[in-house]
Amino acid sequence: MFVQSVAWRRIPNTVRESVSYFKRAEGDASAWGKAVATVDTSAARAFAYNWCVTSYENVERFVKKEGTSALRKLTDEEDSRTMLIVHLVRLGGVLADRIFASKFSWRKEDDGSFLIAWAPVEEDSSPERVAQADEFIRSDAAAAHATRATKRGFLHFKALAPSVCQVTYVVQSNLGGSIPKAVIASRTKRTLGYVQEMQAKFERKGKVVDAEMRSAFPLPPPLAELNDEQKLVVENCRAMETEEAWEALESPHPLVRMWTKHAPPKNGERTIVLGKATAVIDCPAREATAYTFACTSRERDRMSREEQNPARILATTYTNHDNIVATIKKLPLLLRNREFVDRQVCAADTSGDFLVAADPVDDNIDYGTSIRTVRGIARVFTRITPLGFSQCRVTIHLYLDAGGVIPRSLVTSKLPDAMSPATEMRDAFQRDDEIDKAERDELVRVIKDEPQIYTAEEDILINKVNVKLGILEWEHFDELESLDHLVKMGKIFIDGGGVLRANVTVDASIEVCAAWEMAKMNREQIRDAGSLERSFTKTNDHHGVYHVVYDIMIPGFQQREFLSSLVWRQQGDKLAVLYEDVEHADFPVNPSLVRGSSTIYCEYVRKRSERISLTSSSTCTHSRLVPLP
Predict the structure, then answer these.
(1) Please, are residues 412 and 262 in contact by the beta-carbon 8 Å criterion?
(2) What is this structure's pTM?
């Protein structure tokens, strides 16, 4: 196709527009223009909208653009795939009007796309059709005095999803006579602006369109079917998968874990850091793969704009699973922005995982204007592992060379942003409430239906906590003012620490209350509890080891670590959940933390009600933030 053989250049100052605009000058009065955009409707509907030029909407748009007195006549050929259009265009000022007579035809391509093409009527029409065009022109005084101009080009409508298509508009206008280049450039951009009008007409919510595009994303090919260049991209990136010497990195999201690794540079070398991130995503692996590969999706482009990054474009598309993406990242004042250009390849591994690899390339990218940047290197490898039908695990490995000599702390601070797809996907697809409820429902089922057998050690632990806290009556406590009038609170001091107690009636069964208390690793707890670290090692259905680290937010004080055995036991209408300090080989003493002590007794007693489940809930907590001497 002609469009592929022309040396196009992006029109200046359009790199951040929703439509990609290009031009190619040719002579004094002629110019080629091209516009490419995603339009939120089907390819067939977009084609029909453009072919039906006599619709009320199209006539109104033409009159508004060219004026009510502009001549616009057409006639259909017998086969209904061809028509003749004669129309007048006003250039304004001292420039004479231009009259165009063009023959339009359309066809459906083998790949299901639609093509509308046009050329001057003189080039491929019968003498009768040319005479008809001349008669149209002579019949109007303004048209008769206008300068004859010509145009040729095409509109191509390619389906990207059932209700999303890519529109490519290529046009050459030869205005005839001697026209200033500035006027030609202005008319070219104005003509191409029609694609933006079409885009605005069919525009829908970005999240909805992104979801449709992900649903239409083709299944990635197996690694064995990649060509040599594509395999090299994957292998270059997969080499980063290593478990050696990773250091924990503070993550912006409590449910996304991050690590870093640093290679000290030699004198004059650039600062290089490596990053790793992993998260469980609540969507099928194929959908997460589509999200990762779609670097220029509506939502991700919106976030890039909010960060004020100068550019984020899809520079070249080779296949549905192979492209080149260019990004310019904004850096703080006094530092030049960084440009990253990567080739993305998506494939399916023999393990059943999906892989998305992004490897740096040396391509020069046309941004439409000169942008002073430093070329950085970002190599990214993303592995998407299915976890059943509706979940997957995403693991990102990143090699980041920001270019130039930049403080390591600044480069490291940018790592979470560079690995942000993990966080973005976590939030975009999260079903936290649904998954937490499913876990609690399973624990409720175990409490109700499965008999529990307790060891001698577990009996000793239960009795120890019960003697210490379970036998304390409310009369032993000094009442505290509660923030909730339905919650009764009190305190006493024993054994070098304070004991706090809270009583409340809950509109739920004792099993549901206990499940809420024991769900230490549910997403709500991890997201909202404010702990720095948290883990639960299950021993059996009624016993486990709970480890948690808190920052007590007092200047000069170290973080506090708590390690507890957690056990539950039900006796008739009473169910108790107990915590007691424990030593465990998997959690040796950490000199950077202070290990605190905590004993907790939670008691849930069923209250009889004919209409709803009610539980009397009582919690006693005895804590010491420092160990006893």
Answers:
(1) yes
(2) 0.82
